[in-house]
Design goal:
It is found in: Cell membrane. The protein is mainly alpha-helical and 432 residues long. The chain has one domain. A two-stranded antiparallel ribbon has the order 1-2.
Length: 432
């Protein structure tokens, strides 16, 4: 697909705001979901939950801007949306039960050094990612997200009220059809904004049918100032170790996102660029701890938006960062995004995530079709998807292995890396 706007292009301001909005729509629900889950399980007060959520939006915006524009050696200078990471949910809850939110944030702050220090080794690590490994990792990123989009279309988690109702399925599939129509047959701005157009039309239809709950908008406060160190910090050794493992997992996941992004934006991902991106992840997570929210990583779904729309401008996503900051300072704005029905998000999400799979397949198509490469792809994707669709497989493993292997992306990536090193006939990595 030809890019409508390349990484360094600056679309007109009005166009940029519209294009930035679709990144916001895709990301905001996931950004606030992590603090809501962690805070809800720990039984935090409404006031404390508000602090976690507002800080998540505010810091997401700041770190997104840093990734897109670059600040000194920090930031990959690609259209990356940053947000709170589900990788840290399990370990955060475990720490929180024993040491409170202060233990979560203090452990995350110290352990962020794993990612910060690790970023300086990314040029060396980059050499371990030839196209056969890169393509497998990128494909896994997309495949692992498909079940999420399917649940969104169905209206929630399996077993929830109304799951897979005809209404939900019709809404999700209608939004999917609208996005496809705009992306394929629209011209100019209509094609570039296919995702936001589909979601706006879907939201309007749901509102007209009385399927939108506006209560969160009425309940949201108008202004919320940041409250650094609201929960304080404590530094339990067990928490730091757990968080350190989670950060190692995040390095692998973010590396996969950056490879996918380099493919859809048609830019080379050098070891130096990869280092800048991972360093921004680490610095952003440290900043999140100081401002009282959970650690960060790059968002895969926004890679899919670039693939669908052909808009790779980092300046557009910089505006998304500004919007996230405003959502953090003015929670009522964020509430307007949060009330979008899940089937609407799912209709757009299914195509976004599938586009990441396409990017991975495109990379794999450049590799030699040998038995060796076929084994690497098959075993890695098979193992990664096994963990994704049946996480119960890990039930009886030691806790540290559960943390490492809980993500299908990480499981498949590690297997691809090891098989590529162990099997004879290894190809060298090339900067793409």
């Amino acid at each position: 697909m030809e890019l409508l706007y390349k990484v360094e292009d600056k679309p007109p301001v009005g166009t940029s705001i519209l294009l930035a909005a679709q990144h916001l729509l895709a990301a905001l629900g996931a950004i606030i979901a992590v603090p809501l889950v962690v805070g809800g399980v720990l039984g935090l007060s409404t006031e404390d939950m508000v602090v976690l959520v507002n800080a998540a939006m505010l810091v997401s915006g700041v770190v997104t801007i840093i990734q897109c524009r670059g600040v000194g050696p920090v930031g990959i200078k690609l259209p990356v949306v940053m947000g709170t990471s589900f990788t840290f949910v399990g370990v955060s809850i475990a720490i929180g039960f024993e040491h409170g939110v202060a233990g979560i944030l203090g452990s995350a702050l110290v352990a962020s050094l794993v990612m910060i220090i690790g970023s300086f080794f990314m040029p060396t690590i980059r050499k371990l990612f030839p196209p056969i490994v890169t393509g497998t990792v990128v494909t896994l990123v997309g495949l692992s997200l498909i079940p999420v989009a399917v649940d969104w279309i169905a209206g929630g988690q399996v077993g929830s009220e109304g799951y897979a109702s005809i209404t939900n399925l019709l809404i999700g599939l209608s939004v999917l059809a609208i996005v496809i129509a705009f992306a394929q047959f629209g011209k100019g701005i209509f094609s570039a904004s296919a995702v936001v157009m589909g979601m706006v039309i879907g939201f309007a239809a749901c509102a007209a049918l009385g399927l939108v709950d506006f209560a969160p908008v009425h309940q949201a406060s108008w202004v919320a100032l940041p409250t650094p160190l609201h929960f304080g910090l404590s530094f339990p050794i067990s928490g730091i170790i757990g968080m350190s493992i989670a950060y190692l997992v995040t390095i692998i996941e973010s590396t996969g996102d950056f490879f996918a992004l380099s493919t859809v934006t048609k830019t080379k991902l050098t070891g130096k660029k990869l280092s800048r991106g991972i360093l921004a992840d680490g610095v952003g997570s440290a900043l999140a701890s100081v401002f009282s929210t959970t650690p960060f990583s790059s968002f895969s779904q926004n890679v899919g938006i670039v693939g669908i729309t052909g808009v790779a401008s980092r300046y557009v996503v910089t505006i998304t960062g500004v919007m996230l900051i405003l959502a953090g300072l003015f929670p009522v704005l964020g509430a307007l995004i949060v009330i979008i029905p899940l089937p609407v998000l799912g209709g757009a999400g299914l195509l976004m995530f599938a586009m990441i799979i396409t990017a991975g397949v495109n990379i794999l198509s450049t590799t030699q079709h040998t038995k060796r490469n076929g084994l690497i792809i098959a075993i890695s994707i098979g193992a990664g998807m096994a963990v994704t669709v049946r996480p119960e497989l890990l039930t009886n493993l030691p806790e540290f292995l559960k943390v490492i292997l809980a993500s299908g992306i990480t499981t498949g990536s590690l297997i691809a890396l090891f098989l590529n090193l162990l099997l004879p006939g290894r190809e060298k990595a090339t900067e793409q």
